[in-house]
Amino acid sequence: MIWWIIKRDLLLAMRRRSDVLTTLFFFVIVVSLFPLGVGPEASILRIMASGVVWVAALLASMLSLGRMFSSDYADGTLEQMLLSPVSLSALVMGKAISHWLVTGVPLVLMAPVLGIQYDLPVEALIVLTLSLLLGTPVLSLIGAIGAALTLGLRGGGVLVSILVLPLYIPVLIFGTGAVEASTAGMGFGAHFSILGAFLLVSIVFSPWATAASLRISMG
Amino acid sequence: MLTARNLECIRGEHRLFSNLSFSVNPGELMFVGGPNGSGKTSLLRLLCGLSLPDDGEIYWNGTDIRKLGVDYRDVMTYLGHLGGIKDDLTAIENLRISCALAGCEIDEDQAADALGQIGLAGREMLPARVLSQGQRRRVALARLLVTRTKLWILDEPLTALDVAAVELIKGILEHNLAKGGMVIMTTHQELVMSTVTVHHLVLS
Amino acid sequence: MTINWFKYASPASFYFLAGRMIPYFSIAAIIFLIVGLYIAFFSAPTDFQQGEAYRIIFIHVPAAWMSMFLYVVMAFWAGIGLAFNTRLSSMVASAIAPTGAMFTFLALWTGAWWGKPMWGTWWVWDARLTSELILFFLYIGFMSLQAAIDDPRRADKAGAIIALVGVVNIPIIYFSVQWWNTLHQGASVSLIQSPKMATAMLSGMLIMALAVWMYSIVMILIRARLIILERERHTAWVSELKEGVLE
Prior knowledge:
Number of domains of chain C: 1
Helix content of chain C: over 70%
Number of helices of chain B: 8
Low-confidence stretches of chain B: none
Strand order of the largest sheet of chain B: 6-7-8-3-9
GO biological process, one term (chain C): cytochrome complex assembly
Number of strands of chain C: 0
Mean pLDDT of chain C: 85
CATH class of chain B: Alpha Beta
Oligomer: heterotrimer
InterPro entries (chain C): Cyt_c_assembly, Cyt_c_biogenesis_CcmC, Cyt_c_biogenesis_CcsA/CcmC
GO molecular function (chain C): heme binding; heme transmembrane transporter activity
Strand content of chain C: under 5%
Keywords (chain C): Cell inner membrane, Cell membrane, Cytochrome c-type biogenesis, Membrane, Transmembrane, Transmembrane helix, Transport
Shape of chain B: globular
Order of helices and strands of chain B: EEEHEEHHEHHHHEHEE
GO cellular component, one term (chain C): plasma membrane
Largest sheet of chain C: none
CATH superfamily of chain B: P-loop containing nucleotide triphosphate hydrolases
């Protein structure tokens, strides 16, 4: 059943490619603005790189949260999901996975290119990309709760950022920490383990909390 | 058998209805009528379990539907006034996905067959965006041909349908009722059903 | 004598009970505040390292304690409201949020005032201050979500979810920030620095903490009463109250 949801959302994304590309370009533009604001000094850029890329990834992932449930809500599909004999948590998991495939994965793939703009060494580029690979699914999973709670509310887009961004902080800290550790020549395995732990915890709790939130918002 | 006991529904500061009790037996149809804003859709949403009544209970064969959960959703089909039709998907994709969500997966041929029966032959591969309101409605209603559930809760199923389509839907409903199914629906168009027991519930 | 506790779970009985309790807690709050401030500003000795400016911790520390404690209490009541569908507990949770946010803000503000003479800067990215800032964001999130929802039942339940998610995340956020801080600054300057606190200092701090407690209870009861009145304005007992039949 999860596959049906993922397949459908990917199909919809394929037919509405512009939505996917907007998120990606938002990410690219935000990251590219910083050197213009701070100056092109390579040594400063290298220090900032992981933080800038990660914050831009948080914002890009968050901005696309509005789309996660809103179109299903508007056309009545969400009602069908709530009334489906299939567990709602499983359906929500499918929605979060497809959100990640559509928004998270392009960010992960684009990150090394942006890292080059910031003069990052190859090893740091790899660590940055891997940290995003581990961290962005957590963003989609946590974000799903916020998206479900703000469903159909006026000003939902701004509200979701207030709800969700503070919860993203641990991911941000350990994601950027991994890159810094690698540039400092220290091990970054611990960071990846912690990011992995965040991922596992959010896989267990987030679909459940999101399903509960959807029932509240639709009730 | 679906039984509602002393239902009360409050929206904001407005009491839509209270002390509402009725039951629908196998083979019976219930029309829910009343002016706009009288709570018809709210009642249907309570009956299918999307929202909770402010007071009262709903039983399916003697058990509270809240306790039944998935077991209730297994025997019930709800079609809201929003059909759950995606503009960017074709009629066939829409039907297959809504059936899969409802727990009965069908293949492409079965979907094409159902769409043909409901009068959409030759339009199966068109994206829903180019279909007319009535045709989109038909795509949503095609699910009734495939589903094996007993209880159907339909919110304004006849909106935007032409005379031929209304006759078609009438036939589908009669078929389900003859099998011992139950239908609860809102409509502004009266359907004349001679062979089955029909209840009228008018909300004011 | 048996007390029917469930009686007080109805908003109406709680309204009157709270009304009777408010004066006592107000008096207690004022007494503790006067005693606590006297100790803080006159009785407690001047710190030989930090001078007079350290006295701000008599407000800063109790406010910080209370801000964290109130979030947990708020999440607890909101969770009870969600699990057992008890309206009163959800109303109490909504009543707690502004007071909690106020103390979080107070802790941040006094932290800045303390930081200026101590560190020569209004803000440092100290682990405690950063966590307090994030806690402030969490309070704001809870209140904005509830404010955006018109249907009170949905507001209660949605608020409960975000409060519970917040409570699960607070330890994770706290340890992340702690870890981040040690990585970036080495040993951070902590606000309660002196290892052996003078007895006068400690007692002053505890009495101020009690004052803050009493103040919170008073504010929460007052706000809960207002929320009850607003939500129940169409019920018979509120109309009777308006006509002066009760009380």
